[in-house]
Specification:
By secondary structure, this protein is α+β, with helices and mostly antiparallel strands. It is built from five helices and seven strands. The protein has helices at about 10-15, 20-30, 80, 90-100, 115-125; strands spanning about 5, 35, 40, 45, 50-55, 60-65, 80-85. Strand 2 (about 35) and strand 3 (about 40) form a beta hairpin. The longest helix has 12 residues, at about 90-100. The radius of gyration is 22 Å and the shape is elongated.
């Protein structure tokens, strides 16, 4: 079942990081998959022990290869295939983007609804931006 090496696009698909092999190959072509900081082509051969970084905006996931496979396996077997070594800060970024998902609206989705606008205003308060509403202490003569 396990080999010494495997194609990165097949491994990403087989280890269920991407839903299809073509999506995995496109991610490699577009520079979203790196090994040791170097962008890789879909045909790149990975070895056991390498760390694969996958950018799925806004987060960059990191996986340590435990087995080189090219056939898709069940979800229960994934702990034997790779170890998730993603930094905790990446999960914080993911949580913040989930909470404030309406801040970065997709192009063409129109204006925010009234509920989204209120949530946006509550999220981006002047105090958060370091703006003080109290102008009494400001000297305009300077």
């Amino acid at each position: 079942m396990a080999n010494e090496t495997a194609r990165i696009d097949k491994w990403l698909w087989a280890s269920r990081i991407f839903k299809t092999r073509s999506i995995a190959a496109n991610a490699c072509k577009n520079g979203r998959v790196t090994i040791n900081g170097v962008n890789v082509k879909p045909s790149h051969l990975i070895k056991i022990g390498e760390t694969v970084n996958v950018k799925k905006p806004p987060v960059t996931f990191s996986f340590k290869v435990l087995q080189c496979i090219e056939q898709r396996v069940g979800a229960k077997l994934l702990p034997q295939i790779y170890e998730n070594v993603t930094d905790a800060k990446q999960y914080e970024i993911m949580e913040m983007s989930r909470i404030s998902g309406f801040v970065d609206r997709a192009r063409g989705t129109g204006r925010p609804t009234k509920k989204e606008r209120r949530s946006l205003d509550a999220f981006i308060e002047p105090a958060m931006l370091g703006i003080d509403d109290d102008f009494d202490n400001f000297d305009f003569d300077e």
